[in-house]
């Protein structure tokens, strides 16, 4: 604060003021303090504190403005928070988080990796309903080659209600995703799950998308080390291989202890091991064209027959397997949904391949577990089996490609099969996830 | 009022000249009220009881002032007023009106008086102060003839040094012109129109600072007010220095 000093002689004293004659000839009236009556002629010094009068008003204005802004900001923030009642975490590889309001109208989208950024930028209508956004995301993901016809993709979707009410129908969401996949002729496993708010915070800590965090958690439970950075930037599907491998060993023990019914389920759910089995089968395909079940069975089945000589019920077994997996899907959505997808997308080659493989596996499994025989006859008419027959040749080719990649694993598995049939089953279930 | 003038007035008033007494009282009225206020440490108006006590003390000072004593009249007046007021306060004390500060001021007074009597420096200072008071009182009375109060002069003060220089120049021009000065002291009015006519100053400047210009002219017309004149001349000097 600046201050100005007036020094002069007192020429007059009134009730409120003292008139000074300053040294420079100016006359100045200064306020008089009550207790002070200077004598006329006395020299007097007055120090005037210069409070910035303009600044004072500015200060008040700014104060009011700040209060006003904070109030507005507060209301805005609360308003926005109210708007977001659901969080949809989508992972294809693009990891995207979509916030919606109560009516599933999208309010906000966040991408968690580079791929996600690309996809979000591609989206045209960002305020649409969640279903249409999901469809669009899938189309964009297809356009950007995150999902392709030749590869079996994985679409992970976790829905987290941010408010306590949950009026969400997961089935509907899942259905829309599947439909859009189907219309685009894409094979992909779809997993839709329900999460809790805690998941968000936990995943934020590790800086992973929610779906990947769940995977990460599973890995950790199994005692597997996963590079977080690697997981962040790469699609989930690429990690499933690892997961499956480890799963097999762990699940083996569990299976042994569990009831036979459960073991069946596990067998059914695990498609990948079948692929491995198929690889071996493929080599033998050329040798035997049509055997035991001549009508419907394809070459792979024949091979299997050769190997294990239990081809009779392979078709039935396939269908039973599928149904069993379906049951599981309703109960445990994540793990077994891929099978549902395969059922729905009968025309997709991969799925067909899988099914044929499954059939083969099932046969193997049956040899191990006799209980499967009870169910097969009921589900004879399953479309997969028909398709499987028609496209067996193509399947074999595809399988060969797959087989090359997983030859090493297969060899191990085959060994395991010999040793312990249950292990094979477990491995199969995990292999499916890889696809 | 010059010192000799004052003594003659005092003498004649003490001898019963009511007109001289009236003149003295009128002249020293502002001083009396200011002194009373200073001693009472609060603002006193003529409707306060203390002011009449001050007047009575002043009246007695006229009668009892020893012209040959080594005291100035104003100092004597101050002493008398103070004693009268202290007596008054003591009387009032019985009625439970207690101005607490009286004792302190009393002590101050004795030491003050003692100092004045003992040291030549302080004596000179006090004399100077008395002179200054006299000058101020005279200026005040003169300004009253032009209906000017000290309080309102602030408004007419020039804010800038340039304007101040300009105003001083106007006052100088004015004093040199005897015709203007005559009409000025006769009519108690600033002949602005003639001033503008003769010297080409801007009327607007004169109007804006009219009362300040009058004060300047009065001060310049009374060079005997040495101390006050210093206040006016200083800006000129400082201007020269700078």
Automatic annotation (TrEMBL), chain A:
It comes from the Bacteria. It is found in: Cell membrane. It is a single-pass membrane protein. The chain crosses the membrane at residues 58-76. Residues 6-55 form the RsgI N-terminal anti-sigma domain. Residues 310-319 have a biased composition (Low complexity). Residues 265-276 have a biased composition (Polar residues). Residues 277-287, 294-308, 348-369, 413-435 have a biased composition (Basic and acidic residues). Its main location: membrane. The keyword Transmembrane helix applies. Pfam families: RsgI_M. Residues 251-435 are annotated as: Disordered. Keywords: Cell membrane, Membrane, Transmembrane, Transmembrane helix. This is RsgI N-terminal anti-sigma domain-containing protein.
UniProtKB/TrEMBL annotation, chain B:
Negatively regulated by the anti-sigma-I factor RsgI. It is found in: Cytoplasm. InterPro entries: RNA_pol_sigma-I, RNA_pol_sigma70_r2, RNA_pol_sigma_r2. Pfam families: Sigma70_r2. A motif (Polymerase core binding) lies at residues 49-62. The keyword Transmembrane does not apply. Residues 24-93 form the RNA polymerase sigma-70 region domain. Residues 192-211 bind DNA. The keyword Isomerase does not apply. Its main location: cytoplasm. Keywords: Cytoplasm, DNA-binding, Sigma factor, Stress response, Transcription, Transcription regulation. Interacts with RsgI. Belongs to the sigma-70 factor family. SigI subfamily. Sigma factors are initiation factors that promote the attachment of RNA polymerase to specific initiation sites and are then released. This is RNA polymerase sigma factor SigI. It comes from Aquibacillus rhizosphaerae. The gene is sigI.
